[in-house]
Amino acid sequence: MKAVRFHAAKDIRVEDVPAPSKKLGSNDVLIKPLVTGICGTDLHEYIAGPIVTPVTPHVYTGVTNPQILGHEFSAVVADKGSAVSNVKVGDRVSIQPLISPRDDYYGRRGLYHLSPSMGCVGLSWAWGGMGEMAVVNDYNVAGLPKGVSDIQGAMIEPAAVAVYAVDRGNVRSGDTVLVSGVGPIGALTLLAAKAAGAGQIFVSEPNAFRRKMAKDLVPSAIVIDPMTQDVVQMIKDLTEEGVGVGVAIECVGLEASLNTCVNAVRSQGKVVQTGLHMKPASVDPMTWALKDISIEATWCYPVQCWSRIIRMVETGGFPIEKIVTANINSDHVVKQGFDALLDKSVNHMKILVTV
Asked: Tens of pLDDT along 41-97?
């Protein structure tokens, strides 16, 4: 079968590889991927990997590179093991890609995303969404209703990151919110904050294309260019008595963005760190103390959220498909996918791949 595999930095190949065995374990599900998103994690692997893809056998899954990529995807169930009861053959599904023990400290508490042994379909598993077929566990599949498209199904995974950020900020109806950075996760966080009922949303983003997209996604948002405008001062000017926002969500993973969130949030507000920092940040904890704020940090998402997010999408109040800017064939995945996303002269937000 055809598959897109990561070998090393700048070495992603479209190859013929053996298809999964038709002999399934009792809890296995054989799936045919439909569409798959290229994630920022995939881009980091392409630029500087291996980072999270395994060079030595993964502690839980046992796999090593080369790795079939793709952890944001929808699929069709082709076959299933004898104990699988949550889906049937022919069902369209969205893939929840995290794989971890059910019986370690975190697994026993339902905190599967925090297990130190956690693996991930498309990053540290034998299969990924950028292959013609894959095998996953029954707990990795969530059925899609007719009202949710294949593209929306592929977008549930990054949307889960955004919803978890908004949940950790405890965003409520009428709240003032800052979203710092409008990459794919920032754009989805903007939509999630709006779906949660945020009354006034501020967006900080230096890229003109992304600022326009933010305005298109949520026309009522106040969009700020941090390169030419004073984000904190603008927020103070536009919030009651100049106190700042109640919740600031950092979606970039940069020191300056994090500190802007801290300075823009009101006393006893919340800062949610969702962007992944690639290096240590210099921060001022005394400011945190003087403002009596809460700093929340997120990692992935609780895996139980899939059905909730699918319902949010189905009702039409969470239009996650709007951030997709291209759908390409896997034969062109490097040039039209990875390289296009890294080219600052090309305007893209989320690119989906069909194998």
From this structure: 999 999 999 999 999 999 999 999 999 999 999 999 999 999 999 999 999 999 999
Other CB atoms within 10 A of residue 348 CB: 17
The CATH number linked to 225 is 3.40.50.720
* Cα Rg, the chain, nearest whole Å: 20
Q: Are strands 294-297 and 265-273 parallel, antiparallel or unpaired?
A: parallel
DSSP string, 45-111: HHHH--SSS-SS--TTT---SSEE---EEEEEEEEE-TT--S--TT-EEEE--EE--SSSTTGGGT-
* CA–CA separation, 301 and 299 (whole Å): 6
Q: How far apart are CA 256 and CA 153, in angstroms?
A: 34
Into how many domains does the chain fold? 2
Distance CA(327)–CA(28), nearest Å, equals 29
Rounded CA-CA distance 4/331 in Å is 9
Q: Residue 84's domain spans which residues?
A: 2-143+319-354
pTM of whole model > 0.85? yes
Task: Tell me if 168 sits within 8 A of 300, measured CB to CB.
Answer: no
Q: Is residue 302 part of a domain?
A: no
DSSP letter, residue 223: E
CA distance 273 to 249: 6
Measured CA to CA, the distance from residue 124 to residue 13 in angstroms comes to: 17
Residues in CB range of 174: below 8 A, 6 or more apart: 197, 198, 199
User: How confident is the model over 293-321, as pLDDT tens digits?
Assistant: 999 999 999 999 999 999 999 999 999 99
DSSP state of 131: B
Output the CA–CA distances (angstroms, integers) from residue 256 to 137, 206, 252, 253, 273, in the order listed. 40, 12, 10, 9, 12
